[in-house]
Amino acid sequence: MVEIRMKVDPLKPGWYLPEEGQSSMKDRSRKRLVSTPHVWRPPTDVYETEESLIIRVEIAGMHEKDFSLSLSERSLVIRGLRADISERRAYHQMEIPFGEFETQVNLPCRVIANEVSAEYSLGFLRVVLPREKPHRIIVKG
């Protein structure tokens, strides 16, 4: 196993990988390291009301067109891309993820697919999935 440590060089802006780490990485499969996409997962709440299942995703700095939602059977997948600012900079601290994201929610109940609605406001995507009512069966005697 290779340990990779990050160092700060006052002559270089931001962070860099030390030379010993670079040489050990050359020995490994470079294709595997480069081609693996970094997909992150935004904070997601799932809760129920009497009528609906609500999914709330915290994802600031986006537009409605940046989201893709797909519902199949008992699973909702939310995907998107939060673009990074293209200016050049050296980070002192970096906690806000950019790039492609995905979150999948396994639904605890059946929903009415053609009545699902989604709204993006103030940095939150809110998806309302109306719950399917159970069919009552009357037993005749």
Notes on the protein architecture:
- There is one protein chain.
- The chain is mainly beta and 141 residues long.
- The chain has two domains: 1-36, no CATH class; 37-84 and 96-134, Immunoglobulin-like (Sandwich).
- The protein is 11% helix and 35% strand.
- It is built from two helices and nine strands; from the N terminus they run E-E-H-H-E-E-E-E-E-E-E.
- The strands form three sheets. The chain has a four-stranded antiparallel β-sheet with strand order 3-4-9-8, with no helix packed on it. The protein has a three-stranded antiparallel β-sheet with strand order 5-6-7, with no helix packed on it.
- A hairpin with a 3-residue loop joins strand 3 and strand 4 (52-58).
- Mean pLDDT is 80; it is low at 1-17 and 21-36.
Summarize the SSE layout with pairings.
Layout: E1 7-8, E2 15-16, H1 19-27, H2 30-35, E3 44-48, E4 52-58, E5 67-72, E6 75-82, E7 99-106, E8 117-121, E9 124-130
Antiparallel strand pairs: 1-2, 3-4, 4-9, 5-6, 6-7, 8-9
Broad structural category: mainly beta
The averaged pLDDT comes out at 80
Continuous helix count: 2
Helicity, as a percent range: 10-25%
Based on DSSP secondary structure assignment, what is the total number of beta strands? 9
In terms of DSSP E residues, the strand content is: 35-45%
At CATH level 3, the topology of the largest domain is: Immunoglobulin-like
Encode the helix/strand succession as letters: EEHHEEEEEEE
Number of domains: 2
Q: Tell me the name of the CATH class of the largest domain.
A: Mainly Beta
The major sheet is characterized as: 4 strands, antiparallel
* Spatial separation of the terminal alpha carbons: 72 Å
pLDDT under 50 segments (min length 5)? Answer: 1-17, 21-36
